[in-house]
Design a protein that fits this description.
homodimer, mainly alpha, elongated, DNA-binding
Chain lengths: ~190, ~190
DNA sequence: GTCTATAAAGCGATAGAC
DNA sequence: GTCTATCGCTTTATAGAC
């Protein structure tokens, strides 16, 4: 429901109706509105982990074709840009909770933890691709890629750019960033 | 007030109180809530143009020192990452209206127009830096830089990363992107 | 655990006087 | 142009029965 109407548009009564229960029961289980949002964020995180793992397992179709670390990184990032209900829901709700945290500190810690884990995963892929690159440069590249992904995500979800355009820009960004890490000439 | 409490937290009564007028007068001038938001977006755009122009005028301090197009681009992008009330307000409100448009199509056209103008300005700087680069590559680079800026902006404003870190990541991104455009070997 | 009923407050918008 | 007063609806949260 957060993905459909946003945090601001989430009504406890609507939620209860859709769940087929009473509002009282919702408060019984989640305590209050912030508790509801906290559980929603946890749910989103679990679900993202789930489909990330699922993609990893069924990822290498050909035995050894196109199975480079660069492709693995691209594939992982592009997971967030799919027009599947589950993915779109997750991206929308995640972005909304992030945007909401600008004005409500409530969920910041949880968001920071999830974001750090996510950045670390991207950094792992970058290290696999460029083992010789200095750690700070890798971290910075991972942060730029994830921040770019979030920026593109909002544009996609608000209809400002089409899905394929977002995917294309992200793909080229991976190329730009990984090309950069491979060039030892420039600092940082 | 949007920068302080978000679109979702904006109350017409509060707005009227802060303006020292009645709620009735607010409706008289802005028609309704959406009208209020539309005017706010216009105000933000005008104000951004204002301080961008002001920065351009007082930008080159030394006669010809450090006045490269690369520095001009960096300076322009970094304008959005300053801890001045006016800038922070503008960034916060802009980000909030953008995030809000994911669920409310109302302001999408205005946002798209403003975003396109903004991307074109960045592209102009890139062309000045790399006149030989193909137009699609320049446009894509400009879109990546502005999308990254928006992603970093949310992280900064929600306290996930400090201001200086956002500035540093943006600076290096400019380096990565402009370095890329200067390399004619790779397509796109 | 679950429901009904309702308190209590908030909020967008309008009417009508001046 | 501006204000006061208020309608009418929505929403969070709780009380208390079952």
């Amino acid at each position: 429901m957060i993905a459909r109407q946003g945090v601001r548009g989430l009504r406890v009564a609507d939620l209860a109706a859709e769940a087929g229960v009473s509002t009282g029961l919702v408060y019984y289980h989640f305590k209050d509105r912030p508790g509801l949002l906290r559980q929603a964020l946890a749910f989103i995180g679990d679900r993202a982990d789930r489909y990330t793992l699922a993609a990893d397992e069924q990822a290498p179709p050909g035995p050894a074709e196109s199975a480079g670390p660069r492709q693995a990184l691209e594939r992982m990032l592009l997971l967030e840009f799919q027009d599947l209900p589950e993915v779109r829901e997750n991206s929308t709700a995640w972005g909304e909770l992030r945007a909401h945290s600008v004005f409500d500190p409530e969920l910041r810690e949880d968001l920071a933890a999830a974001g750090a884990a996510w950045t670390a995963e991207v950094a792992d892929h970058l290290v696999a691709l460029h083992p010789e690159a200095p750690a700070p440069a890798v971290t910075a590249a991972a942060e730029r890629l994830t921040a770019l992904l979030e920026g593109l995500s909002v544009r996609w979800l608000s209809g400002l750019i089409p899905l394929e355009h977002a995917r294309e820009l992200l793909r080229t960004a991976v190329g730009v960033e990984t090309g950069r890490l491979g060039c030892p000439g420039e600092a940082n």
